[in-house]
Sequence to fold (1129 residues):
Amino acid sequence: MGWIMPEGASTYAGDIDRLYYLILVITGVALLIVEVALVAFAIKYRERPGRRAHYTHGNMKAEVVWTAVPTVVVVMIGVLSARVWGDIHRREGPPADAIPVGVMAKQFEWNTTYAGPDGQLGSADDFVTRNELHVPVNRPISVMLEAEDVIHSFFIPAFRVKQDAVPGMHIRIWFEATKPGTYELGCAELCGLGHYRMRGLVTVHEQADYDRWLAQPRAAAETNR
Amino acid sequence: MPDVAHQPGPGEAAPEHKEPPYIAIFFVLGVLTLVELGVAFLPWPKLTLILLLLLLAVWKAVLVALYYMHLRFEPNRLRMLAIAPLPLAVILVVAVIQEFS
Amino acid sequence: MAHGAHGAHGAVMQPPLYAEPGAGVYNEKLGMWVFLGSEVMFFTALIGSYIILRVATPAAWAPLSERVLNVPITAVNTFILICSSVTMVKAFAAAQLGRQQALCRWLLATVLIGATFVGIQVFEYQELIHKGFVPSAGLFPSTFYTMTGFHGFHVSVGVLCLIYVTWKAFRGKYTGADHRGVEVVGLYWHFVDLVWIILFTIVYLI
Amino acid sequence: MATTVPREELLVEGYTGAHPVDDRPFIRKYIFSTDHKVIGIQFLVMSLFFLLVGGVLAMVIRWQLGFPGRPMPGGGVLPETMAPGGIVLPEFYNSLVTMHGTFMVFFAIMPLLVGVFGNYLIPLKIGAPDMAFPRLNMASLWTAVPAGLLMIAGFFVEGHHASAGWTAYAPLSESPEYSGVSNGQVLWCLSLIIVGLASILGAVNYITTIINMRAPGMTWGRLPMTIWSLFVTSILVLLAIPILSGAVIMLLFDQTIGTTFFKPAGGGQPILWQHLFWFFGHPEVYILILPAFGIVSDVIANGSRKPLFGYKMMVAATVAIAFLGWIVWGHHMFQSGMNPTLGTSFMLSTMLIAVPTAVKVFNWLGTMWLGNIRFHVPMLNAMGFVSMFVIGGLSGLFMASTPVDIYIHDTYFIVAHLHYVLFGGSLFALFAGITFWYPKMFGRMMNATLGKIHFWLTFITYNMVFFPMHALGIGGHMRRIYDPTQYEFLQPLQWINVFITYSAFILFAVQLIFAYNFIASWFNGAKAPDNPWEDNALEWTVASPPPHGNFRTVPVVYRGPYEYSSPEVQEDFLPQTRKLPGDREPDVMPPGLRAET
Ligand code: HEA
Ligand code: HEA
Ligand code: CUA
Ligand SMILES: [Cu+2]
Fold:
């Protein structure tokens, strides 16, 4: 338990975590100021016989300070956040060399469509896995998110990726995993009684491994059709 | 501030009160409706039509508010209160339309 | 109104005598205007959704000439509602001058014309439903029935209120000095008319 | 009180103040009463009941989260469709979460803050005999009650109660084929439409009353912060609730008559529901906090025996929050598929809203600074409010930052935030407000010792319940999940859930102290003096409880409500109606009063 972010495994994680820690420090300081002042005043200015409160209606200078300082601080947080946000949701879309993957969410499973050897989604050699997502390490992955029934949310905590999948919409996101291994994929939007078990696994392969995996299940998928 | 409680409020029933041109407004409203009907079926570009029709509708609405709801004769404070929600309506529609256009 | 709010005589159509200057109008009128602010937002939700959905999915709206809506009859109905607004405002003018007979007659006319509007709308609905234009038939009918339906509901409530006011008028409850009921119900009535003016344009003509 | 004018003599045309004898029959006095004070107390009873219901639902939620799949003690009484053998079903869990949020927001906190304090305090504090429209006021209460019953009825209908969250995201909320819920959701919609109508009627009344019925001398610059906050809140209610009503009506039609506003299959837009809901929803959360700000401002000034620091800035901040509150709704939708550029604008506006709130926090601290602080129970709760609300507000900044929100959106970080602002904020302020005005409402004092015990135990256990939720959120724990142990990465965090659950049970038990104190004091509390807290505002110049009609004659106001420790008088308080030699008469004076002075 604590305030430490779990280990990240994508290119976003660094930026997001840094921003998180920055805000943690800023808000921590603000919180400390407020709580310390509150406790100190409570002790120092508790009622004592014969004392009288200082009669004042305010102080313009103080007001200006505590309006201006928070303004500067939050605008700074805003500007820094906007930059990271802009990197994630790039105007020009995912990098050109990204591997396209289709993810169709439905109650209560994730169906992932991979492009076949032609590298194009929507062609005859596509194949599908259920509740599994396989990606190579250090390659941008471009995910086309769709939903069949209700809203779901594609959440890979280790990658700091979360995006709603909305029926009727085609939402493209991208990410790049940086560490091989297996990670959990969860659904973060209430989608019905099975929402809590709408779980999948993401496997990040070394490139060679990935190529081998890509070669193997294709036949099976074709017979499945 | 003057002792406002004793002055007859604006739009109050004073005997010499002159009636606003209710009937004239009525004819304007009727004519504007006819114009709208005429305009709607003109073979003009869609955007022009929409803007023109909206303009006519707002014109009519403003006439109703100013004269029939006698906003024209009300204190300023009330007039401000009456138009206060309109910016919110615009904010909502304009922001959400960004999503889909 | 109940105790405390107003005296029995004199300045009932003014702000309370014993208070700081407020909006400069009497309570009931201020209250109605405040309430109308809320109504504006209600119709914003419905009309705004219509606009947004229409921008998002233009294909769900056929060109004007191919739509099933009966524009001529609705144009007549629009005119009818405008007529009811003018009779309403004439009733108010009569009330201001304390002309009892004129007040009753104009109010009665407003009730009848208002009810006619509702009647024609019901007829229009029947015709449309007959043609298969039912609420579940797509985006256009969804928005159409919700907007015009809630407007019709408002008109109907207005007619009921007007009937009550008319009944009171016939019993001579309104005077030149106190005709709050007439003015307040009038504000509501004109507002409903105003909403229709907007609706007619954006639903039937655009 | 040393007033120079013999008030009893001054009768004003059109003013019928306090009734010397109250001869209303029982039913008009206590049930269908038009007296704002009775209505306020009726709202109090109603909403405390719903607070209790919401609390009970929370306990069931906590049981399931702490011990997923284990039969709940006493759960055997629940029907098979909810918890067979005492084991909570996933469907039932979703209903629990939905109804916990719904009851707490719409039937507990909102009526407590707006219905209770709006009704009880507005006429008294501005010096009016009653609301502008007493009968409308009664109608508002008796519209809210059936709505609440309708909401409860949902538990007993075929299928489950509404279970798409209190935010009711479409299309889940409107598709029985996906949710398994039909009638429950319909009742949820109807109930919200009706309770919305009640709120709007109330708001119309409050706004009219505050604008038009302030006693002579009660200028805008002398209004207590409670009244300012309630005024601004009422405007938010007036303009935000109809948006919800409209949206819910469309949702209802989608479900019942087959329209397709939010149904993608028929060309509708699920995102539109979210926009409408949050366009209402964010103003709504400020509806839930602004009155709390007002109550706390009044209590802190009273407790510190010092004028409120920066009154004008406090008013300006309230208004600024209300304005900005309309342009930040998108921060609930950063991950919804909303246009990212729009997201950036919403982030910046959300950041800015921290500024007026900061002004408020520092002004409360400024009020305490160099004060002479009395730690009565209301003051303790008000200080609890400041220290806890700040945590909730600051956690809001994490979520306002779009990239960070990617990770913490829909996790327990949000749950922690919302409980810190709603419980740590609104509910602590309510404890402050209820204990502060209880003597006026019931003419009896609450037990101060029990009050202090309740405060400290609540303060501690409350933090034990909700502070660890931040850690869960940072660990990635999603919200609204029935069984967190399904995920491997959450299993190491499960002990936190267990800890929270035990703490929550204690927290609930501690609330029973409050319930006991509340009920027992009603019957046996010490008789309350007219002005137990030595406050300046108008309600403390009349008897406890005040008579029907409030003031015997028109009160005249000579100053603002925060003149504590003024050098002009010996005592450390100076009532608003007390005329000192140098005081000018208000510009507007009722004819009767003017003639005599
Ligand atoms: C009383 C109710 C209340 C209040 C007052 C607030 C106040 C704020 N809220 Fe909160 N919010 C909720 C109730 C409330 N919220 C609820 C119920 C939800 C969840 C809804 C759901 O999904 O179910 C929610 C969700 C929510 C989200 C969506 C999260 C998500 O779903 O991903 C966001 C995102 O931006 C947010 C932000 C904020 C901010 C920035 C404030 C600001 O107003 C806070 C400002 C206050 C401070 C900042 C603290 C005091 C200031 C200082 C001490 C000054 C010094 C400090 C600095 C300037 C650094 N809130
Ligand atoms: C003001 C609002 C409020 C309050 C007070 C609470 C109080 C509590 N909440 Fe609630 N909660 C919400 C508003 C609130 N909550 C909302 C809006 C959500 C989101 C819903 C959604 O996702 O859709 C939520 C969600 C939520 C969750 C997340 C569920 C999930 O996502 O799966 C959890 C989990 O632990 C939880 C727990 C608790 C607990 C343990 C309490 C405890 O504090 C309860 C303690 C008990 C009481 C407060 C009752 C005391 C009674 C009295 C004082 C009455 C006295 C009576 C008389 C005098 C007669 N809440
Ligand atoms: Cu899918 Cu939650
Ligand atoms: Cu918000």
Summary: Chain D has a mean pLDDT of 93.
